[in-house]
Amino acid sequence: MSTVTLVDLRARIDEYQEEAGVDEVDQEKIKLASLYFASAVLGPRRKRKKEVVDPDWMRLVDDINSFNTYPWGRLAYEEVLFGLRKDLRARFEEFTTLAKKRKRDPKFSGFGSLHLSGFVQPLQILAYEIYNGVAEAFATRREDADVSLPRMCHWVTRKWHKNHAPSHSDVVAAFSSSPYEKDPLLHNCTSAATV
Q: Where are the domains positioned within the chain?
């Protein structure tokens, strides 16, 4: 099997845009779109170049039911943890030095940024759900959202201008402004992780 990239996959999807109405074509479009989403959003970035589609997933998508029941959540979670560990490990010394400076000068905010790879939006939504201050500072809950949709679809993150993104002190203030709320969602997540 030759290497297929996201660009190749997108081109094939665009070819199908012209054809419509035939059940076989519609099923093929669903398979290609599912594979594209999994590869572009959920796919691991550590094993191969990010634009390459996993050949195992290309075989898996032929049986759409198997593809749909694949443990995508576990894969996305492991990818986020891998990226977090990698970035924190690389920056541990830097963070230690900066934390010491911050203890001496509480106004110091030179922590910089942390890059997370993978599908990190669920962690962001979790913060909105359990810290009111974070939600108030950075997002809006859509009251008109369809209750049958996942909870993460009920939030809209505010757009930030590239020259005015939230600073470290903005984030700290948002987390500090309201106490942590005991949420059944978080309890279920943490108890499932310890099992």
A: 6-70, 76-194
